[in-house]
What does this fold into?
Amino acid sequence: MKRTTLRAAGISALAAIAFGIAAPVANAAPSAPVRTVAAVQTADAQQPTGSLSLSTAGSTTAPGVGGPSNGEAAAQANVGKLVKAAWEAIKKAGLAKKAWEAAKKGQGGFVDWVNSLSNFNPAKWAIKSLPGWALQELISYILQNYTG
It folds into this structure.
């Protein structure tokens, strides 16, 4: 085997290990209980004038909706780590400009670009190991942080 093939396999294995460890931590966060909110709307229509008035009865707001819980904050921190690790793999492979151009085309264009990369490219497998929502975060991160 060539030196570059072994190097690519090693980097891919490290990326998989890093993402494999980070994903269970994000999924282990406790979720907040779901509260149902009942709202009843009544409509009073007045035929002659053609006006309609709506009133809401029994509407309440769910307590604790203000900010993210501890589990959500931890999950958001892990997403940031995943996205930054994937971005570093892209930059290390020298594909930052091409990734930015693909990100401008949206998620479909970005996925097509990733699929066009060589199977021996560790950046390809670092990106493909991301879940769908993290892929969208990566695209947003690239568009916001790459200066061209």
